[in-house]
Amino acid sequence: MGRTIRIGRWEVDWHQRALHIFRGPDPHCTRCAGTGGGWIPTGHGPDWDGCACLDDIRTWRLPLWRRNHRYEEKPF
Fold it and tell me: I want to staple 2 with a disulfide (CB 3.0 to 4.6 A). Which of 11, 15, 22, 30 is the partner?
Protein backbone atom coordinates (compact mmCIF):
# COMPACT_ATOMS: atom_id res chain seq x y z
CA MET A 1 0.00 0.00 0.00
CA GLY A 2 1.43 3.36 -0.97
CA ARG A 3 0.69 7.05 -0.87
CA THR A 4 0.96 9.52 -3.70
CA ILE A 5 1.91 13.17 -3.29
CA ARG A 6 1.76 15.60 -6.25
CA ILE A 7 3.82 18.79 -6.30
CA GLY A 8 3.45 20.58 -9.64
CA ARG A 9 4.94 18.30 -12.31
CA TRP A 10 6.40 15.95 -9.69
CA GLU A 11 4.69 12.87 -8.29
CA VAL A 12 6.13 11.01 -5.30
CA ASP A 13 4.86 7.50 -4.48
CA TRP A 14 5.72 6.31 -1.00
CA HIS A 15 5.77 2.53 -0.70
CA GLN A 16 6.84 0.31 2.16
CA ARG A 17 10.52 0.16 1.23
CA ALA A 18 11.11 2.88 -1.38
CA LEU A 19 10.14 6.26 -2.76
CA HIS A 20 9.36 6.45 -6.48
CA ILE A 21 9.75 9.97 -7.90
CA PHE A 22 8.31 10.79 -11.33
CA ARG A 23 8.31 14.03 -13.29
CA GLY A 24 5.36 14.45 -15.62
CA PRO A 25 5.05 16.45 -18.84
CA ASP A 26 5.22 20.24 -18.88
CA PRO A 27 1.64 21.57 -18.63
CA HIS A 28 2.64 24.70 -20.60
CA CYS A 29 4.28 22.84 -23.51
CA THR A 30 3.16 24.25 -26.87
CA ARG A 31 3.78 20.96 -28.70
CA CYS A 32 1.73 18.54 -26.57
CA ALA A 33 -0.34 20.87 -24.31
CA GLY A 34 0.69 18.88 -21.24
CA THR A 35 -0.32 15.40 -22.45
CA GLY A 36 3.25 14.12 -22.91
CA GLY A 37 2.76 13.10 -26.53
CA GLY A 38 0.20 11.30 -28.61
CA TRP A 39 -0.63 8.38 -30.85
CA ILE A 40 0.41 8.69 -34.48
CA PRO A 41 -0.84 6.37 -37.22
CA THR A 42 1.74 4.14 -38.91
CA GLY A 43 1.54 1.32 -41.43
CA HIS A 44 1.64 -1.27 -38.63
CA GLY A 45 -0.90 0.37 -36.32
CA PRO A 46 -0.72 3.36 -34.01
CA ASP A 47 2.56 4.20 -32.29
CA TRP A 48 3.23 6.49 -29.31
CA ASP A 49 5.22 9.64 -30.05
CA GLY A 50 6.63 11.10 -26.84
CA CYS A 51 7.05 14.85 -26.55
CA ALA A 52 10.43 16.50 -26.00
CA CYS A 53 9.20 17.97 -22.69
CA LEU A 54 9.62 14.49 -21.15
CA ASP A 55 13.20 13.58 -20.26
CA ASP A 56 14.63 10.15 -21.09
CA ILE A 57 15.31 9.48 -17.42
CA ARG A 58 12.40 10.89 -15.48
CA THR A 59 11.79 8.24 -12.82
CA TRP A 60 13.89 7.63 -9.74
CA ARG A 61 13.62 4.95 -7.04
CA LEU A 62 15.08 5.73 -3.63
CA PRO A 63 15.25 2.77 -1.23
CA LEU A 64 14.37 3.65 2.34
CA TRP A 65 16.57 0.99 3.94
CA ARG A 66 18.85 -1.84 2.91
CA ARG A 67 17.45 -5.25 2.09
CA ASN A 68 18.46 -8.35 3.95
CA HIS A 69 20.80 -10.03 1.43
CA ARG A 70 20.89 -13.39 3.23
CA TYR A 71 17.65 -14.48 1.55
CA GLU A 72 18.35 -13.35 -2.00
CA GLU A 73 19.15 -15.99 -4.58
CA LYS A 74 22.57 -15.94 -6.19
CA PRO A 75 22.55 -15.60 -10.00
CA PHE A 76 24.89 -18.60 -10.53
Answer: 15
- pLDDT tens for each residue of the chain, 76 residues long: 568 888 888 889 988 788 888 888 888 888 888 888 877 778 888 787 888 887 665 778 888 877 666 656 666 5
Task: Tell me the domain boundaries of the chain.
Answer: 3-64
For the CA atoms of the chain, what is the radius of gyration? 18
Q: How far apart are CA 11 and CA 9, in angstroms?
A: 7
